[in-house]
Amino acid sequence: MSPRSNTRLSVGRTDASFVSPSARTAQSTVVLQDLRASTGTTGTMTTLDSFINADFTESYASLAPRLALVASQVETKTNLMGLDQKGNPTVSYMYLSIPRPREQWFQQPPPPPAPQPPDTVYYKLDSSMSEAVWDKINRTSIASIPVDPKDFFHADGEKRLACKKDVPIIRNMMVFFTLPQVSDVEYARKQVIDLPLSVNEELVFPMVLGPQRYRMENAEWLHQSFGRPLFGRINEAETTYLNWRNTPAGQLASVANGLSPFTRFDINLRSIKSLNLLHLVTEMVVAFEVETRSGQPPRFPWIESCKSTSTSSSFTEAQAPSL
């Protein structure tokens, strides 16, 4: 999906237009949106407008103080948002598991002491939230998945993003469906399937000082498609996604590129249901490929999961290639 332009984003009550925020420039975009919200006699945009509309035939001595004031306010906002000295961007992969309640499985596993199906190795959405997601799927074939910063961040990066990273921006998303039988996986992979995606207009960008909330008003950004989803057995989401990402189709994918992962994603699963596959799914895994930068503490004191610690991490990252 190609980058978009003429995007409208609302910050509080202030509407703002900006040129397509790719993953590489999204951090700067967030800064600019906050600056655009700074109105009033001392607001940054008021100062900037004053400078842009200045009479440039004036002397340098007259213009220099105005430019210095704008530069100072931009630098201050950048520092407050924790985007200074963040180093090179890296690509990280987050796999969010939404397991189907066992009592809803089409083929029930035998009761203990018989061997039980293995548990997922990926970070699981809160159990009550997972039940709510699957309840709506069963009723409407729509998966409404709310993603919160606590689902992405952990103090030591256990199955999630380390809290010293911030402003994760999506490069690509994909959906993986766990099926219990090899024959079902093989059948599903041969089908022509398209999964429409709707992104909620309310987006949250995490900053050190707290969540920054924006409203995306461009429908092209909010209504996209995954195309053919991925299928496999339990705990194959990561390898399947990375292998697919190296295919011609995968290399071109950029679903939700430039958006924050912290919003609600509505995925239309009716095409899977029409192929008589949806009732066989035991787990849905949403793969997030995000670009972020590393910083130093403080580590998001307002995110509860950034206050706890662990001893292991399953979150992988790499240097960010160009899109």
Give the helices and strands as they follow along the chain. EEHHHEEHEHEEEHEEEHEEHHEHEE
Determine the fraction of residues in helical runs and give it as a percent range. Answer: 25-40%
Q: Major β-sheet, in short?
A: 6 strands, mixed
Distance between the termini: 11 Å
Would you count the extended β strands for me?
Answer: 16
Mean pLDDT score? 78
The number of domains is 2
Strand fraction: 25-35%
Stretches where pLDDT is under 50 for at least 5 consecutive residues are 1-25, 39-44, 80-85, 310-323
Structural class: alpha+beta
Shape: elongated
Features:
323 residues, alpha+beta, 2 domains, six-stranded mixed beta sheet, four-stranded antiparallel beta sheet, 28% helix
Summarize the structure in words.
The protein has two domains: 7-80, no CATH class; 90-319. Helices cover 28% and strands 28% of the residues. It has ten helices and 16 strands. It has helices at 26-36, 44-52, 60-80, 127-140, 149-152, 182-189, 219-222, 237-245, 248-252, 270-274, and strands at 7-11, 14-18, 90-99, 123-124, 142-146, 153-154, 161-162, 165-178, 196-199, 202-207, 210-216, 223-225, 230-232, 264-268, 283-294, 316-319. The strands form four sheets. Strands 3, 4, 8, 13, 15 and 16 form a six-stranded mixed beta sheet that branches.
